[in-house]
Structures are given as structure tokens and as C-alpha cells.
Amino acid sequence: MVARVAGVLDEKLAEAIANSKILVVGAGGIGCEILKNLVLTGFPQIAIIDLDTIDVSNLNRQFLFHKEHVGKSKAQVAKDSALSFNPNVNIVAHHDSVISNDYGVSYFKQFNIVMNALDNRVARNHVNRMCLAANVPLIETGTAGYAGQVELIKKGLTQCYECQPKAPQKSFPGCTIRNTPSEPIHCIVWAKHLFNQLFGEEDPDQDVSPDTADPEAAGDAGASALTSEGTATGNVERKSTRAWASDTDYDPEKLFSKLFGDDIRYLLSMENLWKKRRPPTPLTWDNLPGKDNPPTQHTGLPDQRVWTVHECAQVFADSCKVLKADLKRRPDGDHLVWDKDEKSSMDFVTACANIRAHIFNIPLKSRFEIKSMAGNIIPAIATANAIVAGLAVLRAQTLLKGNIESCTSVYLRPKVNHRGQLFVPERTLTPPKPKCYVCAPKPEVALACNLKQLTLKDLNNVFKEGLNMQAPDATVEGKGLVVLSSEPGETDHNNEKTLEEIGLNDGCALLVDDFLQNYEVRVRLQQEDDEKSWRLVTDTDTPMLGPQEDKTNGSNGAKEPKPGPSRSKEESDSDMEIVEEDDGGVTTKAPKRRRTEKSDTVVELC
Ligand SMILES: Nc1ncnc2c1ncn2[C@@H]1O[C@H](COP(=O)(O)OP(=O)(O)OP(=O)(O)O)[C@@H](O)[C@H]1O
Ligand SMILES: [Zn+2]
């Protein structure tokens, strides 16, 4: 097959391919397809990096993997399978994260082209910066359901991955999640947070107990609860949920009574909350709806049947038992990581979300539906991945032929448009945004914050969450004074001090750099007395980046105001914002287009 393709390609291209070296980042849905295409086209030198192992759920579309490979390294198995198509290719497989010191600028420089087949912004941002630093062209790919896109990123010639603000992540106020859920997704987010509080990485921003600071409850927060049964038993005290659960040895009945009985009674005592809302109904373990009635007949798949509340409680008890045992098997201080494909984790979230939904009079959902919402899944479509991977490799060939100007972005549409097009190419390359805080010649950004309140620890978060840095170092411009060091321990003693206390004031500029990413940005401090958190302002016409509060699923996506029409992950991509021209090409006016991106659900603090 390879020989035949070699005969088809013109000589110049065949020679360029023969001398090329390609890096593929990600060996998932698109990565497997790209690797297969490269190997069959005769690309002789390929490196592939993927940090993950093969899951059963990958097998339906990641066709380089089979049942016997489950649990094995994606990169390694992808290499072995691809070699079976063409043993003459030199493939180097790395079972590793691309965000590692091992893959620095000099590593990237050895490649003619880097091809991204990733599923999260953190890694995409990182590879974007590495390719800019190494001045290597990057072909960025993505699909969302039936839609997809392929885009060339080349320093100085095109926009970079971070030139355009991303679609905002769907966010909910923390008090909605903790006190007044009104949609299934609120209960699902709460259940995922509960999982982390009990078994995962504890995060104070993921508190699941009633939020007494809810501004809506102002004044009456829990006043009458002080005399309630819950407080009498000590169950609603401000004690870590994990510590309390551990004291009860994760007794499901006690956990249930606190979470779905005492805490709900406490919420009821915040009377202001229920003046215009239907109040929740606390549950008791021994008297659960559905106990005496068998589940209704259901003809679909088991996962598509909605469980009764009684069944949910049983699943809650069973999954708690398994998760507790899993946690206990780990070394002290270690924790579980929520995974939609792990049975007990998914059972736990389904059961808890539905029990809470019942309490708040919200429709219950099937395990299947909750999995889709909790995992933020837009179904991955094998054919969309295959098409995008095919387009990506065609773009790689165009690049190797030296026709970089022809490497415009291509969009795969979910449906043919009125001109009968399924693939819509841009007419020209999209130039870099002059004030991009990543690819501008001298990147600069303003940090609006209250210097009297923002601590050094917060500043570190600003750089990591807002500027997508991995290991930031900051010095005061003109003074060279080190304010923040990525070296463990070096500036930790100042962590709790405010920026004002460490001598930073309005108008001061910091030079912030990330050695790993070869990236430096000048950050101007801007005092704002009313600012409770922080905002990064990139330039006058660019939206501001603010803090994010949830970092699940590896997506970092700083929370951004809507640049234009934006949709949540749950919404369809079928109306991608592409301005089509009469000649069949497209132009996109920043920031009209949305990248196909897996995003996460974010919870905002009240
Ligand atoms: N930092 C990283 N370094 C290397 N590989 C990464 C990194 N982040 C993500 N990946 C890989 O990128 C691939 C993306 O593929 P894909 O979108 O098909 O996701 P998946 O995890 O295989 O499937 P799904 O999320 O739909 O279950 C995954 O194999 C994932 O392991
Ligand atoms: Zn840029």
C-alpha cells in the first residue's frame, strides 16, 4: 500500500516526506488516525507522545487498539499497531505527558512539523508555546461530535492557539450548587464535588455543605438550625466532610443521613432562600420513595433506565463501600481520581446526583445521561476524527511542499452547507493578533486586582490559571527582585503576604516567565479597590481572563466573558460561527469562531 502511495505523490513531495520528522501529540481518536495516515503515506520518522493507557471505552473508535491492549500504553500500542502496516517506519513512542521537562525547546526543534491530537487546553496551550519557541509549524486538530477543524499555527505568520479567547466554560455560582440547585447539572456538579470531598483531592472550593455565606440568605443563615436536630448531633458542624466520613468509617447510612437529611434541614432553616422557591424535602434512610414499588418496566439498555430513589440509595451504599476500600488500599494522603469510566465512581455520582435532584424536585436522570453530562461528553464520532486526521495529513504534505500560504484552516461541518460543502476552508491564513499575550513580540498583560488583598499565593494562581503557566517565576521589572520562584521553598515564606505587603504597588510591572515553556510576559499591576478577585486584561478589545475554580478533566480553560455567541459543552456545535463567502471559502472575524474544545463545568464562588 505504501509503495502505491509513493508512486502517486509527485517527486518533490515524496522527497520532502522521505526527509521529514514528525511529532504527533496524543494517541487518542484523532492521534491514531493521524499515525495510520502518516505511516501509510510513507513518513519515515515519527515520534508519538501520549500519557494515557487504553480504556475499554476507546476501542470503538481508536482502531489501533484492541481488547487485549486494555490497560497498556496508548503510545506504545499505537506504535506497534502502526508498524504492522508499514514496518519500515521509525516510530519512537513516549508514554508520557508532553508537559514535561524532557520535551523542551530543543526536543521540539528536531521536528519539521508537530501535529496536535489532544483533548485539553492545558496541553494544547503548552504545545502551542513550545512550537512558537522552537519556531516549528504546529497543525492543531479537534473534533466535537460531527464538527471539526484543522488549523496551522506558525510563529509570525498565523494566529497562535491562544490569540483567540476560548469559549467560556459553563459556570455556576457556588451557592446554586450548595444551596439552591434547580437543574440536573447542578446536582451532578455537587455529586462530583462530594466524590472529591470524600475520596478525591480535597478542594476547599468544592465544599458540598450548606453555604451560610449565600448573599441571598443574608442574615438568617441557619439561625433556626442552631436548635435543629442536625446541630444537636453535631452533623452540620464546620468539620471537613472527609474527616467526618472517616470517623464514621464511611457508614453509608450515616453519610446519607447527614448529606440528604441534616444538611437539607439546615438549608430549610435559611428561610430567605425558600421565599420564592419550592423548598427541598429532607430524606430519611428508612423511608425512601420507591422502596415498596418495583422499578417500572424498561425496554432500553440498563444504563438508560432511571433508578428509583430507593435504588439510588442502594447504589450509593454499594459504591461507597467499594470506593472506601479503594481509598484504604492507597498510601496515606493519596486519593482517588474521579473517572466517568470507572464503575463505582460513576455509580456514586449518578446515585448522589439523583437523590439530591429528588430532594429539590428536579427531574431524575439515567446513568447514561448523567455520564454524558458529568464527563462533559460530546460523543466522539469516529468518522469525524478520521476526516480531520486526513485533512491534517494533507495539510502536512502541503507544508512540506513549501506551500505554507495554502495551509489555511479547514472546518468540517456537521452538515453540508447550502453550497453542498462539508469541508469549508478559510480563504487566507489568519495573521497573529498583534497584542496576543503569548505570541506578540513583547507579550504584555494588565492584572487588575486589589493589591491590599491579593496574596503571593493568589498571584501564583493568577499565572497558572490565567496565563496557563506551569512553573512561573516573577521578578520586579527594573529591580530584578525575585517575587515568586518556581524553586520549591524559595519564596514560600511570603505566600500569605499581600502584594502590597511585599512592596508591589499600582503601576508596578512584573516580568513573569516560565522556563519550561520558554515564555515570558510583562504583567502590569493595576490597583482596583473594588476587585474581589482578579482579572487579566490583554488589551482594550480583548475580553478579560478571570479565575477558574474547577480543574477537572485536565482542562484549564480560564474563565472568559463571551467573545461572541458561545455555547456550553452540552450545546450543539452545529452552528459554528463561520462567516462564509460567496466563493465557497470562509473568513472569520475575531472573535467569531469557536474552537472545538472539550471544556469543563466550572463553579463560580458567590
Ligand atoms: N499532556 C498530555 N500529554 C500527552 N498526551 C496527552 C496529554 N493530554 C492528553 N493527552 C492525550 O490526548 C489524547 C486525546 O484523545 P481523545 O480526545 O480521543 O481522548 P481519549 O481520552 O482517548 O477519549 P475520551 O476522552 O473520549 O474517553 C488522549 O489519548 C490523551 O491521553
Ligand atoms: Zn497568539
From TrEMBL:
Domain Ubiquitin/SUMO-activating enzyme ubiquitin-like: 447-531
InterPro entries found in the cross-reference section: ThiF/MoeB/HesA, ThiF_NAD_FAD-bd, UAE_UbL_dom, Ub-E1_IAD_1, Ub_act_enz_dom_a_sf, Uba2, UBA_E1_SCCH, Ubiquitin-activating_enz
Region (Disordered): 201-240, 527-606
Domain Ubiquitin-activating enzyme SCCH: 337-371
Gene Ontology BP, a term: protein sumoylation
Bias kind Basic and acidic residues: ranges: 559-571, 597-606
Location of the THIF-type NAD/FAD binding fold domain: 9-436
Keyword Transcription regulation: no
Keywords, ordered alphabetically: ATP-binding, Metal-binding, Nucleotide-binding, Nucleus, Transferase, Ubl conjugation pathway, Zinc
Signal peptide (residue range): none
GO molecular function, one term: ATP binding
Chief location of this protein within or outside the cell: nucleus
TM region(s), chain numbering: none
Ligand binding (ATP): 26-31, 50, 58-61, 74, 119-124
Source organism, top-level taxon: Eukaryota
Active site (record annotation): 175 (glycyl thioester intermediate)
Annotated PROSITE patterns: PROKAR_LIPOPROTEIN (PS51257), UBIQUITIN_ACTIVAT_2 (PS00865)
Gene Ontology CC: one annotated term: SUMO activating enzyme complex
Coiled coil regions, renumbered to chain: none
Acidic residues bias spans: 572-584
Protein name per its UniProtKB record: SUMO-activating enzyme subunit
High-level lineage: Eukaryota, Metazoa, Ecdysozoa, Arthropoda, Hexapoda
